[in-house]
Amino acid sequence: MGKGGSGAAAIALCAVLVLASFGTGAQTRPKRTGGTVQDGVRVWNRAPSGDGMAAFYQARGFPPEAIAEIRSHCLLTFGLHNQRADKIWLDLKRWRFQGPDGRELQRVSEADWRVRWNRLGLAAGYRATFRWTQLPEQRDLHPDEPVGGNLALPRVDGPIQVTARFATGPAGQGDDLVIRFEPLQCGPA
User: Fold this and answer.
1) Domains in the chain and their CATH numbers?
2) Which ranges constitute the DSSP H helices of the chain?
3) Smallest Cα–Cα separation from 129: which of 106, 149, 108?
4) Of the N and C termini of the chain, which has fewer Cβ atoms inside 10 Å?
5) Could you read off the pLDDT of 148-169 as tens digits, one per residue?
């Protein structure tokens, strides 16, 4: 067999391997492991370091003044996976954050970030990238649907208690679901 024949055979083999990787049944996304399950919702959280977050945004070309603005806050990462049979409704306005002294901490909202980015003249592409990495302000989570992202709080020393309240049901008219996350501490700036 000449060069053309072996090339065609290699392409055919690759095609078979790619198709075989899809399987024959319905596809399911890998299940997240770790975290805890509370009332049918798998939750996890962490407090990344300022260096880690800065490196992430530096690798995407963010200007130094934007990275300094991000580092000046406590970024926390949250993940949720709705394993319930009904829909839950994420609305960050219904989340509460308490500092180590028990006082409420105000989350930096999407609108707050817009003001900061306007002040810095941050280009639209960087704004979109940053928004993509944030936990959505509001959205519904259907059964077996995950969501995750960061949110920003003022920097404090000591543990932060996070309590999340979700509406439930098709139109958000069901009983409230309350989740208390493990306390977190801001990662080093």
Assistant:
1) 6-26+34-180 (2.60.40)
2) 3-21, 50-58, 64-71, 110-120, 124-132
3) 149
4) N
5) 999 999 999 999 999 999 999 9
